Amino acid sequence: MSDDRYRSDVCSFICDLEGNLQYLIEYCNISKVIKLEEHESGQVVPFYDGDDKKKRLEFVNKTGNTKLCFGGDSQDKGIGDIRIVLLFLDFRKRYKDRVHFIIGNRDCNKLRMATELGEAALASDEVANDKGFPYWVPADKRVTPVEALAKDGKTSPANPAADRLKWMLKHTLGSDGAFERRKWELEVMTGKEASDDDVVQSYRDEVDPSKEDDKQFMLRFLKEACLGFTYGKTLFVHGGVCDDNIGYIPGDPKEYKTLTEWIVALNKWKTQEIEDFTNHPTDGLNSTDRKGHGLMDYGTPCGGCMPRFDPEGKPRTVICTSPLEKGNAALLTDTVTDFLAKSNIFNVVVGHIPHGDCPTVIRTGEAILVMGDTSYSDMGHKTTRKVNGTDQTWVDNRGGAVSEILVWFDGRLEVHGYRKDKAAGEVENQIEYQLRYEQADKYVGRKVKDGDMKDYWVKARYKDGRYCLCLGQGFKLSYATKTEEEMAALVWDEKTEPKDPSKGVFNEFMTPVGSLAGSVGDVLASAWKDATDLTTDLTKQASDLVVKTASDVTTGVQGLVSPAGQDGEKEEEKEEEKKKAGQ
Predict the structure, then answer these.
(1) Which ranges of 424-506 would DSSP assign to H, the alpha helix?
(2) Of 225, 256, 241, 261, which Cα lies nearest the Cα of 317?
């Protein structure tokens, strides 16, 4: 595929950085769409130990309509939590219509910091001994704050807030060690030693609406982010779609019949949750009565099944859904593929569930699902960096694996990068393949039906023409390598045979948009049909447009389809003028 194809109508997808700044650096090194460039307004992003140059994210093609979608989970496992989010926020501020965020569980769970690190919760014996919390952890594995102190040989906390935060990170957020890693990052950013109190304040500040922008970075991220984003024939969500969550909104008895109205309603619900939280961030302790709890709950494995939000008790979260069955890739259901096809969506791109050291592709008829989380590529791999002159080492589980997922507006996809043994040889471990239409690979995403390789899925194609196959069994992954001649001899599952939807105008997609709200829908449909870039950013703008008057919509639609993001500085000036005018 020529380099010209990377200059327009393509979206780069990265997900599950989880604080690993080095992975973002490696991703930018191979990306066809984004890069890191030196800039005085950027963040300290070291390419090597001792590098203190400031950098910011930039598009390779600054004036085109290429896009970036970050699929969520920005924090917890590295020493780049703060800087990664600030880099993304700066990027979106300069290119609002071209940079999109998806909310992951490691993003929305930070809202808990406002109440659980508050003085009332810290002083509450009920909270300290609450055996019903966290409710998403099996009862026999729950550890209360008091029990955690006892395990450490303490009868009372020496620093109540710091001890409570360490408990939260280790026993409720799956991020043991994040406390010390945050301390290291603060030291890198400030150039001076950080205390336990500094770490606590950093976590409090990141969701505190009263703080400066650079301190409340996580709340700003959540305001800008969405739960689902569509681009052409592709849906992006953090975890996945399944029979129980597709078409449903927590607490809403309505069953949404089209993907378009569902995503609009889902993002509108998220916006309301964030607004409620922002207005009353410290109300409540650790229970369902605190503001924004709906979104906090939606980011748990049982998301949406709390009685307040779903009386039927079904988990209905797109954040924590898994496309796997017992650790192996699984076909999409007919319910899901039919629902997607009604809105002319045939690709689903997700993160959340780590599955090997390169993306996993699942074909089901005309549908393709791509899993992009490779955060467990090399379990036990350690990274060492200097922090104020001292070597600090932590486990990052990535190794040399890095891949970019590219999605074109017409539905084509490409994956390229390296598996974990990159150092063993560029060609030997370099993957590269396309999906859909003329350039499509005929094996990636298929499942072996019978024989010694039964239930193996084709995970990737190497640049030299060999194929990587993978079988998941629980947490164990088995790999095999086959030549193209050997692939031809295998027996394949017919349901995974490559099939492409027809090309052409997105008529079916336009129908539900046009029916949103009478004349409002007509204006939207007409504007989108005439627009060069038909990006369906249904996060906040579309939700707002539905409730605006027809006269207001005209202005809103012009903003939706204009290339405003290509001139970020002008957009920032306009926003400042609006604020001054009280709009």
Answers:
(1) 484-488
(2) 241
Asked whether the predicted pLDDT for residue 562 surpasses 50, the reply is no
For residue 420, name the pLDDT band (cuts at 50, 70, 90).
confident
Give the residue among 33, 59, 57 at the shortest CA–CA distance from 45. 57
Written as six digits, the tokens of 558 are 């012009």
71 close to 88: Cβ distance less than 8 angstroms: no
Q: 374-413 burial string, b = 16+ CB within 10 Å, else e?
A: bbbbbeeeebebebeeeebebebbbbbbbbbbbbbbbbbb
Q: Global pTM?
A: 0.85
d(CA 180, CA 188): 13
Question: What single-letter DSSP state applies at residue 96?
Answer: G
Distance CA 551, CA 137 (A): 50
Helices (H) and strands (E) in the chain, counts: 20, 20
The neighbour count for residue 150, using CB atoms within 10 Å, is 12
Nearest to 95 by CA among 526, 565, 504, 581: 565
Cβ–Cβ under 8 Å, residues 429 and 418: yes
Confidence of residue 47 (pLDDT cuts 50, 70, 90): low
What type of residue sits at position 447? K
